[in-house]
Every structure is written in C-alpha cells, then in structure tokens.
Amino acid sequence: MTFSPKKFLAERILRRGSRLKRRSELERAVGVRIKHEEFFIEALTHRSALTFPTNAARTSNERLEYLGDAVLNLLVAQILFDQFPDLDEGQMTRLRSLLVNQHALAECATRVDLSSFIIMSSSAQQAIERGYEAIISDAFEAVIAAIYLDGGIKAAMKFVRNKVMPKDIQIDGELFNSLDRNFKSALLELAQSRGLGAPRYNLLKEEGPDHDRTFTVEVLIGEEALGSGSGKTKKAAEQSAAERAYEKLSASKP
C-alpha cells in the first residue's frame, strides 16, 4: 500500500497523538462534526485494503455505499420536489440522474479531496489516477451513509445541499436538451474508455396513433443489449436507453 499521511486515516485517528488532528482534517473536508468515527473509518476503507493482514478485521465500505446511494437519492428527490414544483416526474428523474451519476459524484468527491483519505491498495490508487471514478464515487456515497448514521437525516441533508446540489440550477428547455446529450455522450465516453467501441441504437417498436407515438429503443455495445427505453420521440427513447445502459455499465467492473 502506498504510504501517505492522509492515506492511513483509520490508524492515525485511532492513535492518541494524532487522533484529533486527523479527525479535524476530515471534519473540515466534509463539513460535518464527527461523533462516531468508526462509521467514517468503514466508509473510507476500500475493499482492496482488506487484502493486507493488518486490515483483515476491517469491513469495506460496500455496505455503506449501498445505504448512501439510497439516502442520496431520497434527499435529492426531496430537494427537487420542494424546489421545483413545476417539474413533472420524468423531468425530476432526469435531473436527479444528472446530479447523482457516477461522474457527478466523483467530481463532488474530488472537490472535498476525498481520495486523499481513502484507505486502499496502491493499485486502487493508480486506478483513480488513471481516471477510474467508481472508487471515489462509491466512497462519497459511503460517507453520506456515515453522516446519516452519525448525525441523522438533517446532517445528511445539510451535506447533500452543500456538497452535491449546485448553488443555482436554471430550469429551462436548454437544460433538458443538455440532459439528452449527456447520457448518450457519457455512455460513448465510458464505453470507449473500456475499449468496447461505440454504442448502437436499434428501434424495437413504435406504438400509438400518429399524433401520439411511443418509440422503444435498445442500446447495444458489441453484441450485448445493455438497456432499453421509451419516449415520445426516437431521441427521447435513445436518451432513456442510454441512461439505463450507462448506469449498468458504470456499476460493472472494468
């Protein structure tokens, strides 16, 4: 494991001489007061660190990442529901996807320098340096779970408002047009970064009268169908399919 003063958060905060210093650094980074540091130790322990004998008794952050994902989606949904009463269900879903996808969360994690606190192997560190975003985005969600368990829903909401939500979101047609582009572009970039080639979109069916058509499209990478979606236009259906494919591909290990 590569040595760095910040990398060994768990050991450092549990040593009497450095505990308050390390704890205060993490508190400043995430903007919360920590009461039960064991939640944060677990949230910042990547599974690659468990291969070392000294870490064998630890638990990785995967369970907390699962909880944090659910908490984050709930809180962002509530913020959008309260802040934008004119948005319909589909618009809120698309906007939430923009705010909490892997790339967006990796950017949030980078802004608080979260990678410098993650306990991980040198190979995992190198993966982050090569641009692999899953490690830091997963850790960010795990930290949200730690904040929720440590300080409750109000503390988690404050963190999400301060660290995830943009200060000002301009809701207009251009925003939703950009969302249409984002998932198709994001899927293309992700697929090419893994050497998988460009996604292909196939029209599966058209339904309904001419004035109210519904299109269903699937997206394939290679010979594998990774997602399908429907919409009132082919473009909207492709966007929906790309979103599902992006989420599936992001969750898989490269």
CATH structural fold name of the largest domain: Ribonuclease iii, N-terminal Endonuclease Domain, Chain A
The end-to-end distance, rounded to whole angstroms, is: 21 Å
- Return residue spans where pLDDT drops below 50 for at least 5 consecutive residues: 5-20
The CATH superfamily of the largest domain is Ribonuclease III domain
Query: Based on the structure given, which CATH architecture of the largest domain is correct?
Result: Orthogonal Bundle
Strand order of the largest sheet: 1-2-3
> What is the number of independent domains?
2
Alpha-beta content class: mainly alpha
Largest sheet: 3 strands, antiparallel
User: What does the oligomeric state look like here?
Assistant: single chain
Model description:
By secondary structure, the chain is mainly alpha-helical. The chain folds into two domains: 9-163, Ribonuclease iii, N-terminal Endonuclease Domain, Chain A (Orthogonal Bundle); 173-251, 2-Layer Sandwich (Double Stranded RNA Binding Domain). Helix content is 57%, strand content 9%. The protein has helices spanning 9-14, 19-30, 37-43, 62-83, 89-100, 102-111, 122-129, 134-151, 153-163, 173-193, 234-251, and strands at 200-207, 214-221, 224-231. Strand 2 and strand 3 (224-231) form a beta hairpin.
